Amino acid sequence: MPYEIFDLNPVTRITAGAVGKPGQRTFYIQARQDDRVVTLLCEKQQVAALALGAEQLLEQLAEKDPERAGPPDAVLDIDMSLEEPLEPDLRVGQMGLGYDEERNLLVLVAQELLPEDADPSTASSARFWATAAQMRTLARHAAEVIAAGRPLCPLCGEPMDPENPDAHFCPRKNGHSRPTTE
Fold first, then answer.
1. Domain boundaries, the chain
2. DSSP secondary structure of 99-136
3. What is the pLDDT of residues 136-174, one digit of tens each?
């Protein structure tokens, strides 16, 4: 893909989602500004970090100025489904969050993942500017998307196969199975 900067300032809609069965899902962040839709291909951990980071940034903002952050339980009642076609504009390598105090908008900045030998200055990037309510709605929805995945092992925290949890090799059990009670 050629170098491009996607700057949706402000977004009219922002969401995250996953396609596929747990354990084989593909994750996306998607934003819209009027007729323009930008889709980012992500890793599950990146979507989880976005959900956590957005909530933390909104908490910090609320501590400084509760009016700017809005009510902590206020989320938008909108459809958070991904829009088709799901054709990613870039694969995310790095993400960050920021806040523009003057405009009272949060910004999600994503930079393209490049091969190791590529010039970093050729990486495409995306900037999605959103209100506190939009970002809070995104964070809560993204957390739900992550939670809908494979169950985590209570001992090691690694994902387990939901159809065959006994097949999970847990390093904390050191290769031993749990004792069964009869």
1. 5-149, 151-182
2. EETTTTEEEEEEEE---TTS-GGG--EEEEEE-HHHHH
3. 999 999 999 999 888 778 888 777 776 776 777 787 776
